[in-house]
Fold:
Amino acid sequence: MSKFMFVTDLDNTLVNHNTSNDHDLKILNQQLTHYRTEFGAKIVYATGRSPKLYSELAAEKQLITPDALVLSVGTEIYLDGDNTPDKSWAEILQTGWNREKVIQITSGIAELKPQPDSEQRAFKVSFFLEKGDSEKILQKLDTELQKCGLNIKLIYSSEIDLDIIPQNSDKGQAMKFLRQQWKFVAEQTVVCGDSGNDIALFTSGDERGIIVGNARPELLEWHNENPTENRYLAKNICSAGILEGLKHFGFL
Ligand code: GLC
Ligand code: MG
Structure:
C-alpha cells in the first residue's frame, strides 16, 4: 500500500452534526491512524473555521490530531500542532492584499451582515449574505473590488456565508502548498468536501476527489459542469461517504 495525503473539510463532510452516533467517524479515524502509523499517510483538515471555532468543534467531536490544519478557508496553515500560522504561507498571501480597503468597500453594502469577530481574520473578511440577494450583491461587489485593483476572490457557501480572501489563497492552494512540502503527487492525494468553499479542493481535477452524499447544491452543480473520473460522488453521507470513496479509489 502506498502512502497518501488525506485532506478533508470538517462540517458536514467529516463531521455529521445531525447525529451523536459517530460510528462511521470512529471507523474512519481508526483507519486513518493505522495508515498514518504504518505507511506515513498525512492527515489534513481544511475548514472555513477560525482557530476559536475549530477548538470548539474539537472539544465536541472526536477528531484525531491532524498533521496540518488549514483554517479560515485556506488563509491560515498550522503545521505539526503549531499555535501560530505558517509564516511562509502568510508571506505569499500578503502580496496585493489590502484588508482595510476590503472593509471600506463592503461597509457601504447593507445586505452584507458581518460574521462574528472571531471569524474576521488577517486574510479573511466574512459576512452573512441571504441567498435571495446573493447574485446581485456578489456581482456588484466583484465589480467594486476589481475596480480598486484588489487581488481578491469571493467564496459563497451554503447559501449564507460569504468570504473575501486573497486571490492566491483558498483550500485548494493551501493543499497544494502542503503537497509540495511533503512531496505527494496528485494521484496520492485525496480531497473531501460538501459545499462551496470546498470547490477549490476539486478544481484541478488531478487529485482524487470525494464528494459526500449530503453535498450542497452549489458543489453538485459545479461538479456536474466539470466532470472528471478522478472525482467520486458518494452515496453515503459524511464519514461513511468518505470511507466509501477511499475504498472506491483503492486507498483502503
Ligand atoms: C465557517 C467559518 C465562516 C465561513 C464559512 C464558510 O463556518 O466560520 O467564517 O464563512 O466557514 O467558508
Ligand atoms: Mg462543509
User: Anything to note?
Assistant: Residues 5-91+169-248 form a domain with the Rossmann fold fold (CATH 3.40.50.1000). Residues 23-39 form the longest helix (17 residues). The chain has two domains: 5-91+169-248, 96-166. The mean pLDDT is 96.
